[in-house]
Amino acid sequence: MLQEAYGVSTGVDARPALVFGGGIGHAGDVCGAVSGGAIAVGQMVGDHVAELESAKVRARQLALPFYRDFEREFGHVDCRSLIDLDISTDEGFQRFKQSNLKERLCSRLVSFAVQRLLPLREQV
After folding, report:
1. Half-sphere exposure of 42 (CA within 13 A, CB side)
2. Is the pTM for the entire model greater than 0.85?
3. Cα-based angle 103, 89, 21 (whole degrees, multiple of 5)
4. Burial, 12: exposed, middle or buried (Cβ in 10 Å; 0-12, 13-18, 19+)?
5. What percent of the chain has pLDDT over 90?
6. Which residues, at least 6 apart from 92, have a Cβ–Cβ distance to it below 8 Å?
7. Quick one: which of 89, 94, 113, 71 has its CA closest to 25?
8. DSSP string, 33-86
9. pLDDT at residue 9 greater than cutoff 70
10. pLDDT tens-digit profile of 12-31?
11. Looking at residues 82-108, what average pLDDT do you find?
12. Are residues 39 and 18 in contact, defined by beta-carbon separation less than 8 angstroms?
């Protein structure tokens, strides 16, 4: 389980992150793998750094390199550019569903985020 791998508190409710797919409600903005990764960094730091201002600073120090590495690896951080479709439209979403982008690309994006963030648990 990712919570154990990241060393964060168990019982974290992941349902609020459901909207991240497709760049927040399919708007095509920041990829859900990046948004979810940022949430994971915040949770991880928040579980290990008690003082709020120190936690904010540490979370930013860890999140920004992750963001930049993702962008360097894939060329973009926004869903629309990554998948080259506007899934906020019915036509774009149908084209996405009929493609194999979720399996071929989106799973790679999530895998990159997880692999890139796992070592951070040692740096908190």
Report:
1. 9
2. yes
3. 40
4. middle
5. 79
6. 85, 86
7. 89
8. HHHHHHHHHHHHHHHH--SHHHHHHHHHHHHHHHHHHHHHHHS-SBHHHHHTS-
9. no
10. 777 888 899 999 999 999 99
11. 96
12. no
**The residue to which tokens 């990159």 are assigned:** 112
Q: In whole angstroms, give the CA distance from residue 3 to residue 6.
A: 5
101 phi, psi to nearest 5 deg: -60, -35
Rg (CA), the chain: 15
Long-range contacts of 40-46 (CB under 8 A, 24+ apart): 40/2, 40/6, 40/8, 40/117, 41/66, 41/117, 41/120, 43/6, 43/8, 43/9, 43/12, 44/6, 44/7, 44/8, 44/120, 44/121, 44/124, 45/124
Q: Where are the domains of the chain?
A: 18-122
SS3 123: coil
Token readout for 95 is 């084209």
